[in-house]
Amino acid sequence: MKKLTRLVVGCALLSMACLAVQAQEPWTADQCIQYAVRHNHDVRLQRLALDDCQTEKERAAGAFLPAAEGNVGGQYNFGRAIDPETNTYTHVSTFYNSYSLNVGIPLFDGFQRFNNLRAAKADMLMGRSRLAAQKDAVAQKVLETYMNALYYKGCIEIAAQKRTESEMLLRQTRVMAEVGRKGEADVAQMQAIYAADDYEVTRQQGLFDKAMLALKQLMNFPTGDALEIDTYRDVPPDIPDADAATIYAQAKSSDPGIAQAAYSLQSARYAFRASRGALFPSISLGAGISTTYYQQLNVPHTSAFGTQFRNNAGQYIYLSLSIPIFNRLQTIAHIRRQRDNVRRAEEELEYRHNELQRLIQETLTDLEQGCKETEKMRAKVASDSIAARLTVRRYEEGLASSIDVQTQAVALLQSKAQLWQCRLTQYYRTSLLNHYKGKSLWTE
What we know:
The structure is a single chain. With 444 residues, the chain is α+β, with helices and mostly antiparallel strands. The chain has ten helices and six strands. The protein has helices spanning 2-23, 29-39, 41-62, 112-178, 184-219, 244-251, 256-276, 305-311, 330-396, 402-436, and strands at residues 67-77, 81-82, 89-90, 94-108, 282-296, 314-322. The strands form two sheets. A four-stranded antiparallel β-sheet has the order 1-4-5-6, with helices on one face. Helix 2 packs across helix 4 (112-178) and helix 9 (330-396) runs antiparallel to helix 10 (402-436). The radius of gyration is 39 Å and the shape is elongated. The model is unreliable at 11-23 (pLDDT under 50).
């Protein structure tokens, strides 16, 4: 029994350890994006807006159903009034109680309900496109912030490596000062260089912490929980082998921003048609039933409630024709507003097309230029590395000063940081261009 208990406890501890290891696994950019599109506040608000569109669609569909209404009323008459039994004037106080139930449905209203329903359906599709566009915006922002955090993480490693080299050179300078090959000024200068490198590591760590806080805020990730990002593997996605026109032809059919503008135009056109329907006559059909009960307060004998309820019941049916003549230009003003909405939606759709073309061309140009800059920076880093090693060798031989060593080391540090930034920027722009080609940054 004790062995079994120990086995169960051991398995439980092993499972907890495995869960802890899994919880500490670094997050990739895709994982951060997927988490963000599910938990981001703006995305959640857009989902609620989509629910409003669904509710409006149901309301527009319900306008085709008959409307039923029931009424119950009661009143006391004091003084002179009509006797409901003899239809003559009387001074007896009377209590009246009325009941009615009527059902009505519009037969024709200038196709207002039909166009309102079609507009509501377009609004529903526009809401879905708006939600997808919001997810795209969040995904792009998360990817950009993730690359920014990776940049500072890499800068920490670069600065820490330089600090290690400065520490080794400081120790070497102290040994050389003990044997008389260097002076105290050289030791003091190397100590200042090491202190500057140590400060740079601390500064980059602070920038990295701010970038991670911004990433958590975008993801709506608990700020108190640990979030470790994955290391960059220097394997950028495949660069699309196509020109801007080809990519635009693929992007305009899948871009949620353009779809949102197109559905907005469609909704505006239906709303404009519905507003013009108010100029036509409307026809309504209805039917109902009503009954009453009365009691004269000063008369001891009154017919029973059930008897009056049956005897006083009446049914009716009606057909109503309403012709709009003049409503102080309210209908005309509403039509003009809806027409202006159509024009604004057309301008918005044209702007979205032009903006998408500009973004694709800009991203493609930046990517081509970034590839060239990356190759140039690789060559510069190689040259600065050789120059830094030679300067250190000359410093060891007494042919260079500590200032020369610091100058070359700073140049190498800046070159490595710029190369690191070029690589991350290339990854981001390539992912963005693949997104324009139809590869979504997020999945449901």
